[in-house]
Amino acid sequence: MRLDLKGDSQMEPIVGMLYSMVESNYQRLKCIVAGMDQKELEYKGPSQSYNSSAQLLRHLMCVDLNWVYRIKGKLIPKELEEKYGPMLDGNNQLPQVTGISLEVLLYEYDYVFSLLKSLCYQLTDKDLNQTVEYEDGNEATIQWGIWHIADHNRYHQAHINQLRNWFGTHN
């Protein structure tokens, strides 16, 4: 297998490169969680005080979905907002995710990923310099937003790897 940062030939060069970063991190995430049973998916660390892999997967897809619609300049449709849930619960924590299998979570994440891919087909390299509203009234370029999707995914992969290590040791 040859790894590269070349995107789909139907994407513009820089858009394609950024998309390929997101895609390779998403594929890596799927490899990291492969084979998790329900108990491991919902495991919250030795003291049960961390976010579970299920929570982190839902969080990642929620953040990615928000970026897709932010880049589109649209609000997330109500049905998607209800399905993927809020970014944080009433206690400013990641919402609990229980009783949802890994297969269902990855199926739902695949849908979000397909929305991002479709969006990247529509973007031009010139579009990447446009700014969108980002947390607390700040602005970010679309280019930074797509990079952030990849970086954020990789960041939480480390947490999932740690949970897997703890689970193997404590169960």
TrEMBL record:
Membrane-spanning segments: none
Domain DinB-like: 24-160
Pfam families per UniProt: DinB_2 (PF12867)
Name the record gives this protein: DinB family protein
Species: Bacillus xiapuensis
